[in-house]
Amino acid sequence: MGTSTTAASPASEPPVGGSAVQGLLDRISTTPKLWNSLRWIVEAGFQGEKRVIEQELAPWREVGQRRFLDFGCGTGELAPCFPAHCYVGIDLSTTYLRHAGQAHGGQFVATSGDMLALRSQQFDAALVLGVIHHLPDAVARAAMRELHRVLRPGAIALVMEDIPPPDPWNVAGHAMHWLDRGGYIRAEADYRAIFGPGFGLLRSYTMRSGICDYGVYVLERT
């Protein structure tokens, strides 16, 4: 489902009755508490994402030694996965950021992903969850270049993006995939092209969070 409020592309046709449901999702997404409740249900409390964050970023190791960027933090639901004094979340939605700042610790900044209002080489790791599939190629590449700029050499970028459910019996997941509000869900080769030469792919795999499936890409900033 992602965290962006970008509308789905016309090329992503919803199933029969999907337009009405899509409209409902659009309305719900404008209210952070309702949006969080829906995502909490369909993603089983974000347990899948939390496991991957702990495994790949180990945010509570060397507390105080590293700084983390949540690139497209939305309502900040994953901010508690990181030490508050080491965490910066960025998003375009001031409504979401206001909610995040009231509900969670850390620093939250309203800024565009393709033109970050952040100084260069200040972060040791970044989380990019459900963001890139909301962005057309040119904007996505610009965002990755900006991410490269603000990360230190050798930093890890953990990217998780929505993918079609591999399990044909995950009917609810397939329905949610059709209704996903991001219009640029890509194949793995296309995501790799978007990441650009500034990042080396350490590993990739898939994981499920509730009924939602994600492609996981662990990148190293070169």
Offer a quick outline of the entry.
The protein has helices at 18-29, 32-42, 47-57, 94-103, 137-150, 171-179, 188-195; strands at 68-71, 87-91, 107-110, 123-129, 151-162, 199-209, 212-221. The chain has 222 residues and is an alpha/beta fold.
**Percent of residues in beta strands?**
15-25%
Largest β-sheet summary: 7 strands, mixed
Helix content: 25-40%
Order of helices and strands: HHHEEHEEHEHHEE
Question: What is the general shape?
Answer: globular
CATH architecture annotation name: 3-Layer(aba) Sandwich
The CATH class name reads Alpha Beta
Structural class: alpha/beta
Distance between the termini: 30 Å
What average pLDDT do the residues reach? 86
CATH superfamily: Vaccinia Virus protein VP39
Could you say how many structural domains there are in total?
A: 1
What does this structure look like?
By secondary structure, the chain is of the alpha/beta class. It has a single domain (18-221), classed as Vaccinia Virus protein VP39 (Rossmann fold), CATH 3.40.50.150. Helix content is 34%, strand content 24%. It is built from 7 helices and 7 strands. It has a 7-stranded mixed β-sheet with strand order 3-2-1-4-5-7-6, with helices on both faces. The longest helix is centred in the middle third of the chain and has 14 residues, at 137-150. The chain is globular and about 45 Å long. 42% of the residues are buried.
